[in-house]
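Record passed on here:
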Amino acid sequence: MTETKRWLDAYPPDVPIELAIKNRPAYQLFEDSAQSFPNRPCLNFLGKKQTYAEVQEQIDRFAAALQQQGFQKGERLGICLPNCPYFIVAYFGALKAGLTVVNFNPLYTEEELLFQAKDSGVSVMVTLNVQSVYPKVEALLEKTDIRQIIVCDLAEALPTFKGILLNLFKRSQLAKVAFDNRRVRFSDMLAEEKPVTPISIDPQKDIAVLQYTGGTTGVPKGAVLTHANVMANAEQVRLWLGETPPEGDKFLAVLPFFHVFAMTAVMNLGLITGSEIILIPRFDLKTVLKTIHKLRPTIFPGVPTLFAAINNDESVGRYNLSSIRYCISGGAALPEAVQKAFVERTGCALVEGYGLTESSPVAACNPCHTLGKVGSIGIPLPGTAIEIRDLDDVTKEVPLGERGEIVIKGPQVMLGYWQKPEETAHVLVDGWLRTGDVGYMDEDGYTFLTDRLKEIIITNGYNVYPRIIEEAFYKHPSVSEVVVIGIDDAHKGEVPKAFVTLKESEDAVTEQELLAFVKKHLNPIERPAVVEFRKTLPKTLIGKLSKKELLAEEATKAQNAHK
């Protein structure tokens, strides 16, 4: 099949269409910047700054200590940390020692941590000495093959005065650790300067990261991302961002690094450009706004709900956001109304990108120089191709403008799923990654996402796309957030149902008023059967609106109704 690159004319100036592959281990990403900018600020954690040279020394010491402890190439190291300096050191130190990184969400339950630890076969875990995380990780010692837990001290990562205050007044938040051979201090791992034994890495085959999918469509699976995958995606987003200022950018790291979008578009992109990363360990809107006002970051990656929260905050006018050059939205579809309102209210450029765990994750983005097309996920990154395939036959491309499944080809596409050959064969077809997303491509090569295949609502045999309905609701000035799902209907099979939260500053709006409003924007099949108002809507652990809880609620209601 011939690939037609309709997006060529929309490409940013000086950005190559193809990607010059650099066949190097992923840890070189950091070392190149440390060599070029040793004295430049690298990390800013709640006021404590470290240079690239200082962080590089810690990475080398951690890698050497892992080897001294007997960990071998290919073993898995789990990182269960919020955004903090320890994450970067553990991540790149593990890669340099030849280990594979497995990212764990610190907010996971013990059961969720146990599943992922067993499935990935981690040998060692790096975590923090806080009461909300450490006990869950320690419990894994008796239930898995984990040989050692490396415990990071929160106070030691803070500026001296803040560390003292933490130890004096918030000791109840810190976990008591009984250190022994299986529970070791992170600081002890860095105590001695020993040489790192060089490890032979095949970037195309050796695994850098096992990144687990969110599990919204079933049991979580580990996407196998090679060193080449990680390096390629970091280079692709670097090229897309354009020229970095001579002094470097400042990245606001509010998205958690354990999520694949932040791993690439915040951590790796920030580090490959020699930029300073301002670390925020826990999301709080006021903290984000104050940090922007005070520390003047220039790049702000986020998820749509974060930008919507800024839109809806009445105090945003008190903060100076003018330092930001670009905001990059990913992780979920960006509603058109949210994007327009954000740009109008803040004056910040906001572009939408697209990707998934299986593509490391970024595959497409709107051009930063023009901001692209509102409502589009953009055009493919360098070295990447996108096609729209028939929903019933994934080997056939559909005509321009027609909806179908989005498929991706590029150097950032995973090798497959960890120890799951059947699932791998289903999503990787002749070198193309099936995304499970439905969309269409216009004549300029821009792709527009309509829905997940699993989330399409079938009404009287017709496909109904929830995102189209959600966009209609977002046009109403009183709507803050909306989620649309399909519910069972005896006559039509399924019908759309909308869950809505309203802006606090707006007067109450009735269900009838909202239904009358969206009627103007939707065809009869798309119009929701019912609207349910909620104070809040369920979200994933990184702040994306989540449908699975609402689907489960409706399924329970349907079961009870039939009893």
About this structure: The CA atoms of residues 73 and 98 lie 4 Å apart. The radius of gyration is 24 Å.
